[in-house]
Structure formats: structure tokens, C-alpha cells
Write a structure and sequence with these properties.
alpha/beta; Dehydroquinate synthase-like, alpha domain; Rossmann fold; six-stranded parallel β-sheet; two-stranded antiparallel ribbon; 8 strands; 51% helix; NAD; metal ion binding; ADH_Fe_C
């Protein structure tokens, strides 16, 4: 009852004239242990619509470790769908890698992409899918001219992580040559089908388990604290954070715990829906220049390195809401602006306690990199979009404060 009362009080503070899409288009999603078997029904549906040539978009490690070939290959063959495998997906895909996949798809006359993996696999495939409906365009054109993507060839997403949400959303991200990671968006980028099978995450190494689930944590917190938040996104975010707080430590220490994997994948899915309708803000805005400059930076780890400093800034705007969102991690928060630094220290301690103590210096950045990070964050094509939903003004001073304060631990 107390949580319900707090939710109602928070909702009364929302802008009641802010219009949002309660039921946006999104893929038919099959969720649960064993959901991979639904690839047979999906293949049958695709063939009934004249889709008879597919490119499987993956990488060698994911393809072999998840053993999905035993389900995908027979399903496609039984329905007369020819396929080829593109297994060159890299973390933080570049414009060049997206263009490469699009060119291969044109030569193969592909009519659908089937992704097996996480966010990078979906980003690569979604971008290529959009390029096939925009002849003469390159990935650079799409991302830097901010083209709204209304059409793309179909994408089927088989998710193997519990973090990105990209299997359910209308976004894609790619890395430029200049240290940027801009995004494209639009209804054409929603996959047509998604498979969420927690069993496919059992082979995730501990570092990826932590990184992907923490990505979902940040999706949730940001979506609940944007200017465009709404009751739907906020409740989804609160649920996702509570599930992650409970089950991520379990999955990190018991990698074969299927219940932990199930609830983390569910949390990731509803977090993806949450930010799909309410957007994101500072943490993602400032992490993208980091992983663009250093592609070896795991996205979720990079977000976690800067989140405590972001919380220091945003907590003062939404103290009660932030305290509620973090109540399962920092139960003694009172929801007053003066405890922003306490919340900052405690969340950093919690990240360290579950195995992610990383700060910017641990990720290879130094004091000398701050100027470039600030410049790339401020000038990125993505920043104005995120700044519009940020609870605080995105100035050079704010950005510099966050990067500098995130270089080393504060607790």
C-alpha cells in the first residue's frame, strides 16, 4: 500500500497534458524458457508473406555457444527459406560494418535479417535493413542527417542477453569516425518478431552478465526521470530496477540459475519498452562518446562508471522519485535533495559490491581525455535529442563535472 501511495503521489506531479503512445507498435514477442522453438512458427509466417531469403546476423562466439543452429537451420529449411550467415558483428558497430552488411544483403537479395545476439547485432541489422529501403544512402547519411526511419526490411531478433532492449525498440546506434555514437529511430526499426529465451543467456560470461543487466538498470532509471516520463514507463522502470537489484547478484554468482536469468531478461524487456516510450537522458548521452573513443568499453560498464555522478546532478530534481526507484538498493533514502551525495556514494558502493567497481581510469581514460569527451558529448548529433528530455540542462559545465567526478571512486 505504501508503494502504491508513493506511485500515486508521483503521478500527480506529472504533466497531464504530455501526450504519449500507450500502445506503440512493437514486435510479436515470445518470452520464456524454450521460446527459441517458436522460430518454426516465425519461419512459417515469413514464408507465407513471400519472404524466402534470410541473412543470420551474429558473431562466432554467440552462434557457437548458444547452439541455436539446431533450431534455426531446420526451421528455415523446412519452410524453403534460403539463408546465409554474417558473423562479423563487433561490439559498438561502425558505419562501415553496417554498410558492409547492407551490401552483402543486396547481393544476396535478402528479404529478412535474423539477429542472434544482443544490442550490437540488432544495431547492425536494423541499420542495414533501413539502408535496403533507402537506396543510394550510406550509414553515415542515415545517422548524421537524422533521417526518420519509416521503412526497413523485416528484422527478427533472437535475444541472447538481458540488457539491451533493442529487440523491442525503434532505435539503432552506430559509431562514427569522429568519436560519436549517434542514433536513428522510427517505426521501421521495430523488429517484426522477437524471441526472449532466458536459456540462451546461460553462457554469458560474468562480465557480460553484469554489463548487460546494468544497461537495463540505466534504461529504467533514465526513462523514469526524463521530462517525457509517464505512468506506464515509470511503473515498468520501478519493476525492472527491483528485479535487477534482486536477481543480478544471484546471476553473477550462480551463472546457471535459470530463475535469475528469466527475471533479468524480463526486467530488460520491460526496461526496453519503458525507454522506447519515454526516451533516455544524461547517462547514455555521456557514455556514447566513451565507447566511441574506446570501443573496448562495454556499454553497460561505461554507463555504470558515470551513473553515480549523474545521480548527484539529477537526484536534486527528482529526490522522492529517485529514492523510490533505488529503494531496493539504498533502503534508507528519505527522498530529500540534500542526500544527493549520499545516494551517489551508496550506489557506487553497490556497483562495486556486485563486481563493477570500474571508473573512467579503469576503462583507460585519463584526466587528459576529459576535454575531448566533453567536446564530443556536446557536439554529438545525438545530444540535442537527449538534452530535450534531460531533467537538467546539458551544459559544458554539467558534462565536465560528471566526467571529472567519474574518473576515480568517490566512496
Amino acid at each position: 500500500m505504501e508503494n502504491l501511495k508513493e506511485d500515486l503521489e508521483d503521478f500527480l506531479k506529472m504533466n497531464l497534458e504530455s501526450i504519449f503512445t500507450l500502445t506503440p507498435a512493437r514486435p510479436v514477442t515470445y518470452f520464456g524458457v524454450g521460446a527459441i522453438r517458436m522460430i518454426s512458427e516465425i519461419s512459417k509466417n515469413l514464408k507465407s508473406k513471400g519472404i524466402d531469403r534470410a541473412i543470420i546476423v551474429t558473431d562466432p562466439i554467440v552462434w557457437q555457444s548458444t547452439k541455436v543452429e539446431q533450431y534455426i537451420k531446420p526451421a528455415l529449411e523446412e519452410n524453403g527459406i534460403e539463408f546465409t550467415i554474417y558473423d562479423k558483428v563487433r561490439p559498438n558497430p561502425t558505419y562501415a560494418s553496417c554498410d558492409e552488411l547492407a551490401n552483402i544483403a543486396r547481393e544476396f537479395n535478402a528479404k529478412v535479417f535474423i539477429t542472434v545476439g544482443g544490442g550490437s547485432h540488432n544495431d547492425t541489422a536494423k541499420t542495414a535493413a533501413a539502408l535496403l529501403k533507402n537506396p543510394g544512402k550510406t550509414a553515415k547519411d542515415l545517422y548524421e542527417k537524422i533521417i526518420l526511419i519509416n521503412e526497413a526490411i523485416p528484422v527478427v531478433s533472437i535475444n541472447t542477453t538481458h540488457g539491451t532492449g533493442s529487440e523491442l525498440d525503434k532505435y539503432a546506434v552506430a559509431q562514427s569516425d569522429g568519436g560519436y555514437k549517434p542514433a536513428i529511430a522510427g517505426p521501421g526499426l521495430y523488429p517484426v518478431f522477437a524471441i526472449e529465451d532466458p536459456a540462451l543467456t546461460l553462457t554469458l560470461p560474468k562480465r557480460q552478465t553484469l554489463s548487460t543487466a546494468l544497461d537495463a538498470f540505466h534504461h529504467s532509471f533514465e526513462a523514469a526521470t526524463t521530462k517525457t516520463r509517464n505512468p506506464y514507463s515509470t511503473l515498468l522502470s520501478k519493476t525492472a530496477i527491483r528485479l535487477i537489484a534482486k536477481w543480478l547478484p544471484v546471476a553473477a554468482n550462480e551463472p546457471n540459475n535459470i530463475a535469475a536469468r528469466y527475471w533479468l531478461m524480463y526486467a530488460s524487456a520491460i526496461a526496453g519498452i519503458s525507454f522506447d516510450i519515454a526516451s533516455l537522458h544524461l547517462t547514455h548521452t555521456l557514455e556514447h562518446p566513451m565507447s566511441a573513443l574506446n570501443p573496448k568499453t562495454p556499454h553497460g560498464i561505461g554507463l555504470t562508471a558515470i551513473f553515480p555522478a549523474v545521480l548527484n546532478v539529477t537526484y536534486k530534481i527528482f529526490p522522492e522519485l529517485s529514492a523510490d526507484l533505488l529503494s531496493s538498493i539504498i533502503p534508507d533514502l528519505k527522498g530529500v535533495p540534500g542526500e544527493a551525495e549520499y545516494a551517489e556514494r551508496e550506489i557506487e558502493k553497490w556497483f562495486a559490491s556486485i563486481g563493477v567497481p570500474d571508473k573512467l581510469t579503469d576503462l583507460g581514460f585519463t584526466d587528459k581525455d576529459v576535454d575531448r569527451l566533453v567536446e564530443n558529448a556536446i557536439t554529438s548529433p545525438m545530444t540535442p535529442l537527449m538534452a530535450a528530455t534531460s531533467p537538467v540542462e546539458v551544459t559544458k559545465e554539467v558534462v565536465r563535472f560528471i566526467y571529472e567526478r567519474s574518473l576515480r571512486p568517490i566512496h
